[in-house]
Amino acid sequence: MKRLFTMLAIATALTLSWSCEKDPVKEENKENTGNEEQKPGGETTGGTVDTITAALENSPVKTVWAEGDAILVYAIVDGADVAAKYVLSAGAGTATGTFVPSASAVADNATGYFATYPYNEDMTFAQHNTFAYTMEAEQAAAAPVFAYAENASNLTFKSAAGAVKIPLTGKGGVAKVEVTDNDAKAILNGNVTYNPKTTKFAIKNSAASKNMVTMVLAEKVELGETAIDFTVEVPAGAFKTGGVMVLYDVNNSPLANINIPNLTVEAGKTVAMETQNVVPVAQTVNLNSAQGYANTYQIQAVGKYKFETVKGNDSAARLDAASVEVTWETWCNSETVTQNSLVKSVALEDGYVVFEAADPFHAGNALVSVKNAEGTIIWSWMLWFVEEKIGTIEVDGYQFMDRNLGALTTDKAKPGLNYGLLWQWGRIAPVMGLDGTHTGTAMTSYPADVTTTVERSAEGTNWPIEYGIANPTVFLYGNTPDNGYRHWADDLTVEAGLWGETKTIYDPCPAGYKVMSFASSQVLFADLGEGAEADDVNKGITANGFWFPYTGYWKYSSSSRSSDADNGFYWSSTHQIRDEEIGYYCVAKYSKISSKSTSYDSKGSAMAIRCEVDSVN
Q: Cβ atoms within 10 A of the Cβ of 598, count?
């Protein structure tokens, strides 16, 4: 069976290797001839091996035993293969450990003992001497190590693979590594057989086999002045004619090429190259190719980026843009924001907005807007600068973003940074959220105090949709004596389709997500009730095991924000109308005083957004 890949980092070594895979299913109830795969826990006769001393001798990566380690041991008894699992009982942190049976033990009268680490009950063992596994084309776990002995009391584990250590310095964040042998016949992945007794190694070339292996890192590795060792495990004999190592950034774009010289790679040995300095390749990342089409794009690294000037997720809705500007930048707290700290430069080129992320990288949010020939803003996009990978959470089969839209962290001890921004219902662009001081003051921005307010006239006239698009920094507010729930736009028919159950061009969530529906919000906040536990220290509340901050909101009838000290509100995309004049909009609401999951509010209010995974895309 294929092992789930995990990142292995030992002394800053990043490793490519392979995982074990079970052979095709054997015929059921077939009599064992000694060549079929055997499962752990077979019966034994005579005495048993109750303690094994196991040593690591020459693995390029696995140099010491660790708590929880286990090995799979096969004993050849009367022409049959009997297996058992042994677990580490002493010696963690050293190259020599003591292992004891986890259940049944192997017999002490076997004619030979074959073992492998890591333990994998589906590892194929055949012909009384040979293990079979798969060297994956995409790898992340360390290569297995093997041992053979006539006496199971002492086993020495050795690697069937060799390795190349490539120390790297320079600039750039590495998210993926691709290694290619210059010799197209030098297969680096495929089906392997290995006999630890004779050390005979064979790799079968197949249609899927290539002279290339790839590792996707679990976390980005940032290069710098101190060298980081990338240790690549490959079959012995690789790179006789040299090779190439290609580094990819978080956008899956080539960062740099490293030439691998002609090498002599031997099993169990590491060939060390001289330190290589990485100079990033000049490139422009196409965000539409890397992420899709949306009104929000995630930026995770310094570099040059571009996206098409189209409306939201509709690649055919092209805009006749004449100019572009950085409308505002914010770090989502109360610090003084420096101009161009997020977006170094921006321009229009052949129907694309092209911009550079500032170096050094700074977390925050920026709004970029395009204008027509008359100088009117005709669309805006939010650029979400966040280094840590945006994840998802799951509740009863529903998947949501692991943070609020625009939030820079999931750390509940960082108010402001974990809030995200605020949106009036149906608008593509946000207004500043609160700064986390719990005083009702807004996040700082550049330009300072960028968000302004415009009040509706006493007659109750609202604004056309285009007005909200053309004025992304304006909070549209107002109230009339006849009702307490007001909409901000004057065309209810158009307005009802601004956000929806199906993602629209006005939806502010990144590609692959949409504003959560009211039904989804009921699942996410199912735990909210009168007895919900509030976190008075970090100003938030827990629902379904996940923490949500008091983000505060901006009431439709007010020219100032409400405090984030004891309440939070989330929009849903669900649209409801009480009559032709008054719009009710579903919202998930919670507070320290009276927690509840169902509420309605005017779409003129500005609230936080939690995106859900868009199952359509």
A: 13
Instruction: Show the low-confidence residues of the chain (pLDDT under 50).
Output: 1-45, 481-485, 578-584
- In angstroms, the CA 101 to CA 75 distance is 13
Burial of residue 292 (number of CB atoms within 10 Å: 0-12, 13-18, 19+): middle
Cα 430 from chain centre: 25
Measure CA of the first residue to CA of the last residue in the chain; give whole Å: 30
CATH of residue 308:
2.60.40
Strands 352-357 and 303-308, by their bridges, are antiparallel
What is the structure's pLDDT at 282?
A: 79
pLDDT at 75: 96
44 and 178 belong to one structural domain: yes
With 0-12 CB in 10 A as exposed, 13-18 as middle and 19+ as buried, what is 237? middle
Cα gap 151→326, rounded to integer Å? 72
Residue 241 to residue 245: CA distance in whole angstroms: 14
pTM of this structure: 0.74
Q: Take residue 582 and report the two structure tokens written for it.
A: 């008054």
Residue 455 lies in a domain: no
Query: SS3 helix, strand, coil % of the chain, rounded to 5?
Result: 5, 40, 55
Q: Are residues 203 and 113 in the same domain?
A: yes
Gap between the Cα atoms of 403 and 411, Å rounded:
10
Give the sign of the dihedral formed by CA 257, CA 262, CA 268, CA 272.
negative
223, 256, 281 - which closes a domain: 281
Angle at 97 between CA 95 and CA 100, to 5 degrees: 155
**Six token digits for residue 141:** 């776990």
Residue 475 in contact with residue 498, Cβ under 8 Å? no
Q: 329 and 343 in contact (C-beta within 8 Å)?
A: yes
| Whether residues 217 and 276 fall in one domain | yes
pLDDT for 20 equals 39
Last residue of a domain, one of 239, 256, 281: 281
pLDDT of residue 119: 95
The tally of domains found in the chain comes to 2
DSSP letter at 374?
A: T
Tokens read off for 83: 């297996």
Which pLDDT belongs to residue 388?
81
Do 166 and 265 have their domain in common? yes
Q: Are 246 and 178 in contact (CB under 8 A)?
A: yes
Phi, psi (deg, nearest 5) at residue 468: -65, -40
Residue with tokens 């963690």: 92
Domain containing 119 equals: 1-281
In this structure, what token pair is assigned to residue 594?
């009276």
Residue 140's nearest CA partner among 7, 231, 252 is 7
